[in-house]
């Protein structure tokens, strides 16, 4: 490469990294500010979750359209307008005074942010020579992992020192710099004869995916199918997805070309990244709840305790990129990642309320190494046999499956955690007997006597925290088996992927 080409590649890399970091950061940074938003926007605990749900719903609807957008407008145009729209929506989120306002602007933020990661991946694939694409994906992966590292910590700091509105305003400098550097991105990908837009197919897809994401986001808090809203959303989602699938395979210009999934590696890779999303997002949901609610960590301290996972993932991604550049079999790297991730997650199944901070840091580091070693080779395997013309649309499908896998993972672990906590509370509460010698001994140690204060302390304190820990251990077990479920998928990739991945 010449110095000019190197400079252009660097500018493209930084531009894409900034855009992707900005979008990924918004997935985690808002969570810590929800309690503060609730008071300002006069919303209850159920209503405020729509700030998260609206963003995710818009994201999953637009993600599969990535290939169609690039085909009609080109990579650079899509990225520039996505950055501009995302920053504008972020500012309007920060200016919101009512719940309806912020939900609408978050919806718009999700619309503009959806294309940033898949189009960014396609741009990076084109900016680097074939033998360095593994390293390119590793660099981009580092940017993606900055979200889980910076999100909780930065969100807690900004909310505590300034206000919750700054979790949105922080996108402004990222967006401006990304916009300026985006001029280095070649405006390729536009087709002279783009496909017609199948508006009926788009409507069916929006109903199916939007309904599914809403069910996943709201199901646990609404007690799933005990709620008429969840039943209605499930029917809409199921019918929408069935007719969308039929429509996509029946016409020659589908809104999303599902025929790409005939490529076995893309299909297996998409299934693998969905399972991977369950493992990644499942832990990201459980750990903060355990640290803040049960172990009484502050938000900023929680962010610091979780940072080793992101640091381990970043280091592992760079290692994975170098190994791929040396033609190491990507399947071997994924299996090594599953080993590290499985060990790190297995340790979490041994947690108790008395663990030291080392029990948080070291398993998180091991789990992060596993996540880093799995994600980049998995992407390489998924796209090793697909043609260049299908990369943008394939990236949209791939990222959609990661998002849906994360949504399904969050819904499953949240439900397991809540239900098993209730089961454990009932079981342990059934053994509390005012005539029990063990209980009398416990009261002597505390220096207290039976009465309303003691029973409240026992029920709302000891039993609640212990049953909460039991529920989380069951959820951690589920995540552990999620890692193991990746193993058979690795062996289903076509062998040609091993030969092509580095070329």
Description of the molecule:
The protein contains 21 helices and no strands. It is an all-alpha fold. The protein has 2 domains: about 190 residues, MFS general substrate transporter like domains (Growth Hormone, Chain: A), CATH 1.20.1250; about 250 residues, Growth Hormone, Chain: A. The chain is globular, with a radius of gyration of 24 Å.
Describe the SSE topology:
Layout: H1 3-28, H2 34-40, H3 50-62, H4 66-73, H5 75-95, H6 99-113, H7 116-127, H8 133-161, H9 166-169, H10 171-181, H11 199-218, H12 228-250, H13 264-294, H14 299-325, H15 330-348, H16 358-382, H17 391-429, H18 437-446, H19 452-484, H20 486-490, H21 496-500
CATH superfamily of the largest domain: MFS general substrate transporter like domains
Provide the domain count: 2
- The ordered string of helix (H) and strand (E) elements is HHHHHHHHHHHHHHHHHHHHH
**How does the overall form come out from the CA principal axes?**
globular
Structural class: mainly alpha
Helix proportion: over 70%
Low-confidence stretches: 497-503
* CATH topology group of the largest domain: Growth Hormone, Chain: A
Average pLDDT: 77
Question: The biggest beta sheet, please?
Answer: none
Q: What percent strand?
A: under 5%
Number of helices: 21
Number of strands: 0
Distance between the termini: 17 Å
Instruction: Identify the CATH architecture of the largest domain.
Output: Up-down Bundle
The CATH top-level class label of the largest domain: Mainly Alpha
Oligomer: single chain
User: Rg from C-alpha positions?
Assistant: 24 Å
């Amino acid at each position: 490469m010449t110095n000019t080409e190197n400079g252009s590649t660097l500018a493209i890399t930084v531009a894409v990294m900034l855009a992707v970091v900005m979008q990924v950061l918004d997935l985690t940074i808002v969570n810590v500010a929800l309690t503060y938003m609730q008071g300002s926007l006069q919303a209850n605990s159920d209503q405020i979750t729509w700030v998260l749900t609206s963003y995710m719903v818009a994201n999953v609807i637009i993600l599969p359209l990535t290939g169609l957008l690039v085909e009609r407008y080109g990579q650079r145009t899509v990225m520039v307008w996505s950055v501009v729209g995302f920053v504008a929506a972020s500012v309007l989120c920060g200016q919101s005074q009512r719940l309806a306002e912020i939900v609408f602007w978050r919806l718009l933020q999700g619309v503009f942010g959806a294309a940033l990661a898949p189009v960014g991946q396609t741009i990076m694939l084109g900016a680097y020579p074939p033998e360095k694409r593994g390293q390119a994906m590793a660099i981009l992966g580092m940017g993606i992992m900055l979200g889980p590292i910076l999100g909780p910590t930065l969100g807690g700091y900004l909310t505590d020192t300034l206000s919750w509105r700054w979790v949105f305003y922080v996108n402004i400098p990222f967006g401006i710099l990304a916009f300026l550097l985006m001029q280095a991105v070649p405006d390729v990908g536009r087709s002279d004869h783009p496909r017609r837009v199948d508006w009926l197919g788009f409507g069916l897809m929006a109903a199916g995916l939007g309904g599914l994401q809403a069910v996943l986001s709201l199901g646990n808090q609404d007690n799933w199918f005990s709620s008429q809203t969840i039943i209605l959303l499930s029917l809409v989602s199921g019918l929408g997805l069935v007719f969308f699938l039929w429509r996509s395979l029946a016409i020659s210009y589908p809104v999303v070309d599902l025929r790409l999934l005939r490529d076995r590696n893309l299909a297996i890779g998409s299934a693998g990244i969905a399972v991977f999303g369950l493992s990644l997002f499942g832990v990201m949901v459980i750990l903060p709840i355990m640290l803040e609610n049960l172990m009484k960590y502050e938000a900023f301290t929680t962010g610091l305790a979780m940072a080793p996972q992101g640091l381990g993932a970043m280091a592992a991604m760079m290692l994975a990129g170098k190994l791929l550049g040396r033609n190491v079999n990507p399947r071997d790297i994924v299996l090594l990642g599953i080993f590290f991730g499985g060990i790190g997650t297995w340790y979490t199944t041994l947690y108790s309320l008395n663990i030291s901070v080392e029990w948080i840091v070291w398993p998180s580091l091991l789990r992060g190494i596993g996540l880093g070693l799995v994600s980049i080779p998995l992407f390489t395997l998924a796209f090793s046999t697909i043609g260049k013309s299908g990369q943008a649309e394939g990236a949209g499908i791939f990222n959609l499956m990661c998002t849906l896998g994360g949504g399904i993972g969050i819904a499953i672990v949240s439900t397991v955690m809540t239900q098993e906590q209730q089961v454990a509370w009932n079981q342990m509460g059934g053994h509390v007997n005012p005539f029990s010698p063990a209980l009398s001994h416990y009261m002597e140690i505390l220096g207290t006597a039976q009465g309303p204060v003691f029973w409240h302390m026992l029920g709302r304190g000891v039993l609640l925290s212990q049953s909460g820990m039991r529920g989380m251990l069951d959820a951690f077990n589920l995540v552990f088996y999620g890692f193991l479920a990746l193993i058979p998928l690795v062996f289903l990739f076509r062998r040609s992927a091993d030969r092509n991945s580095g070329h």
